[in-house]
Fold this sequence. Notes:
The chain is of the alpha+beta class. The chain contains 14 helices and 7 strands. The protein has 2 domains: about 220 residues, Orthogonal Bundle (Endonuclease III, domain 1); about 140 residues, Nucleoside Triphosphate Pyrophosphohydrolase, CATH 3.90.79. The strands form 2 sheets. Strands 4-1-6-5 form a 4-stranded mixed β-sheet, with helices on both faces. It has a 3-stranded antiparallel β-sheet with strand order 3-2-7, with no helix packed on it. Strand 5 and strand 6 form a beta hairpin. Helix 1 packs across helix 11 and helix 2 packs antiparallel against helix 8. It binds iron/sulfur cluster. Iron/sulfur cluster binds next to helix 9 and helix 12.
Amino acid sequence: MSSLDFAALAARLVAWHAAHQRVLPWRAASAGARAAYPVWISEIMLQQTRVETVESYFQRWMERFPTVEALAAADLQEVLKAWEGLGYYARARNLHQAAQEIVARYGGVLPADRKALLALPGIGEYTVGAILSIAYNQPEPILDGNVKRVLARLCDIEEPINTPAVLRRLWGLARALVEAAPTGAAGACNEALMELGATICTPQNPRCLLCPLVDACRAAAKGTQRARPVMPPRKQMPHYDVAAGVIWAGEPYRSQLLLAQRPPQGMLGGLWEFPGGKLEASDADLPACLRREIAEELGITIEVGDRLTTVRHAYTHFRITLHAFHARHIAGAPQAIGCQDWRWVDVDELTVFPLPVTDQKIVAALQATAKASSAARETG
Ligand code: SF4
């Protein structure tokens, strides 16, 4: 099998990109130190999230935190609120902390240096490659899901894509390509690879006739495109039932309700939620689970009432069914035992707090029920 002519492939990618790149808000920035901030933010947002979703978040983010300094000076709650709905909230916490380090150590400018970037929270090999190549035009590789797919097809790699040996090979291919890119086009070469994976070399139906790499593509030559990349076997995702309480201080909808803040580290860290937790084998039923969780987390006694709504949600490694119940505070002063903080809040204050997607759905159900009951009162 003939070896790949990386210089020719990189030149074709760069030319294809110049003609076909999509207009995306983070591409508007010029190169250099000023471009590094939007590149960093967009690349972190794009991890695990679709381009269409990221566009509006990115624009709002840049209006709110237009510079590294503005992000560093912001309150973490404000940062989490701006991230609300994007998931993987550690990304937002890391951005905030890294911005503070960039201001303290580098005068607010992202360093153009691999080692210095890797030392910042939340910045890994992939983000380093994006910042150094796209903003600073250094020949550093990028390997996201799109690039892996393109390269695995280009070389018709038959082994599962996640093995250390295949990952090493893919990083090597990505590096060979970017190092062979025409002078000054390292960023364009990387962006072209990502763009090609997103728009032409798509997971299900690659459009090989439109691909600038088709002449060299081994999978296209053998007709194995759809069988590449070889994915590792899917693991069965565990499922958990979770009970959450909309705990009213008094009369539902006419009194305040209790929100709890999750511990700062770990999943959904720092976000606010309707308190509750996972159904255990020892719980008689969901209301019993909720009473136990609330006693453990906040040290109070509640009476569990009607079910408000049920929300199903899939995280990366597990799925949950969240059963939300109305509940009434009976006894005890809330204490932050298993949570970071707690607050009695009015219903119309709920949107001020950064909430996980599941809890935003509980808020929507609360608002819908409140509207329906006030309409019923008016007609009655
Ligand atoms: S020729 Fe087809 S399979 Fe090969 S890289 Fe291009 S789109 Fe992907």
